[in-house]
Every structure is written in structure tokens, then in C-alpha cells.
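Running log. JK asked me to keep both predictions on one page so they can be read side by side. First protein, sequence followed by its C-alpha cells:
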Amino acid sequence: MDAKVIEARLNKLQADTPAQFGIMTSQHMVEHLTVTVKISYNRIKIPEFELTEKQKFQKTALLDSSMEFPKGIKAPEMNAGELMPLRNLNLNEAKEQLLSSLNSYNMFFDKDPTATTVHPRFSNLTFAEWERFHPKHFKHHFEQFGIWE
């Protein structure tokens, strides 16, 4: 993932930028992306699990096609549609955390390109699979706040 491209898009995001869909605030969205990136390089570990047939289908549909992230999908950490408490003091701090996490993600897979890490819906993913997942995930959320382009 190209942190420079992500940073340029994040620079367009303000604390009061309204979501075009969903319930997240801009800071919630950035912190959600940070958690996902941290999961992808094992900074946050998810226990391994076997995929159900439905999960296998969803994984293939999302990662092995041009399918976009569906609007309205709930993040695994959202209980009963509630947002997680904010972890950072403000949006700028959250942006810095995300960019730092992207750097750590790239270093992790530079050191071990054959590593697999556990995704909360799709179980073990390779670097190549994360590289297909993250851009779709970022695009989905950046479109949510009108900062994709």
C-alpha cells in the first residue's frame, strides 16, 4: 500500500467532513482502518478459524473479482450497530497512527513476504490477498467521506 497516496487523500479529510453513508465519523473511519491494518501485520492478533462455505464464497467474491466493498456492511467490531470508543485525541493523531501502521505493515511483509495473518472474516490471508483487500477497503471508506479522488 502506498502511504503517500493514502496521506494525500487523508489530507482532504476534516473532523467535520460528513459521511455520505454509514454512521462513522471521519475519526472513527480512520481508526477503523488503522485497526484493520494492524490486524494485517499481526500487531492485533485474531485467533485462527475455519471458514464456513459462506465465508469462502465471500472471500473469493471480494478478493478474486472486481467486486467493490458493499455499502452497509457492518465491521466485525461493531456490536449492535454501535461505534467503538475513539482511541485518539483527535483526527490528526488518528491519521498519524494510520500512516505509521501502513509503514509497519509494509516493513512486516518486506521482512517476511510469505507470512500469513488472520483476517476477522476471511481467516488466513497472504500478503497478495491483503494487497487486494486493503485497497478495496480504503476505497470504500474514502468514498464514504468523499476523499477517494
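And the second, directly underneath as requested:
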Amino acid sequence: MTALAREDGGVPGRSHVEHLPEGGEHRTGVWLANQKQRRDRLDTAQLAGLGVQWAR
């Protein structure tokens, strides 16, 4: 289950960390915050296709 699914489609906070099944971590909150700050330079259609709410 992804962070977005667990958050009911909301954006997790900047400090949110996903713990991966193979034992690693992904700083999902930081990644999302960075994408949101750079949205004017990103393909928001691709982000919206991934389910990112603010990209729509």
C-alpha cells in the first residue's frame, strides 16, 4: 500500500518515511515536497497520472 493510499489521497507530511519491504527507506515526504516546489518545471500530467492530487 502506498503512502497516498494510506493517507486517503492526501499528501503526507515532509517528515514521512516509507519503510520498504527489502529493508530500505524512502523519504517520501521530502520527495513530494520537492516535486511540489518544482511543479512549474515538471510534467504535471505524469504526476497526476500517478495519483498526485495537487498536480491536477
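Observation for JK regarding the second prediction: Strands lie at 18-19, 25-26.
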